[in-house]
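Recap from last week: sequence in, structure out.
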Amino acid sequence: MKLTIYTGGVCATNGYLVETPDGNLVVDAPEGIAAWVATRGVRVDHLLLTHQHFDHVLDAAALQAAGATLHAWADYSDEVTLESLSRKWGMPAPVAPYRIDRRLVADPTRPLELCGLQFSLYHIPGHAVDSLVFHLPDYQFAFSGDTLFAGSIGRTDLPGGSHQQLIDGITRHLLALPPQTRLLPGHGPATTVGEEMADNPYLRQ
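Predicted structure tokens:
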């Protein structure tokens, strides 16, 4: 398996390309990632969305048009992408419409199997109602989206946000992982569960 990070868009959003002998997938679709993948000559079979805030889905339609199957917790709407809110703020964030091909369920007894990989899924709302973490136990890392960052957590002052709900989900699911588990977030550098347990000020309670 080969993992490559791409960072793009005004929010410096991370997207991840995972290449395997059994196919390729992308986690999140920040602006520019579709063209970046194309320049690498890679066909994307699947797109996994940690959540659908606009900065994570600006290239979702382009990847879908190129053949990727889209997987997410909820169907597309301009409320879940925050497009409706951004218009009220006077800062339109136009997202090319896309469709979710497969609605995901966080069932511990049924891992998501794609491209020869087995993902454990954790639904952790609080930053976004549809937030998912994709954990690869065999490789000891997880795509944490905007739930948990190096030294911080996702903001909870957006529609559907809840600080306590986010902390509870992080504690229940992410802090229960082995300390060496690498967390690959939606923004900023990678970290580990152990580092965040020791140093993240939001988790000291």
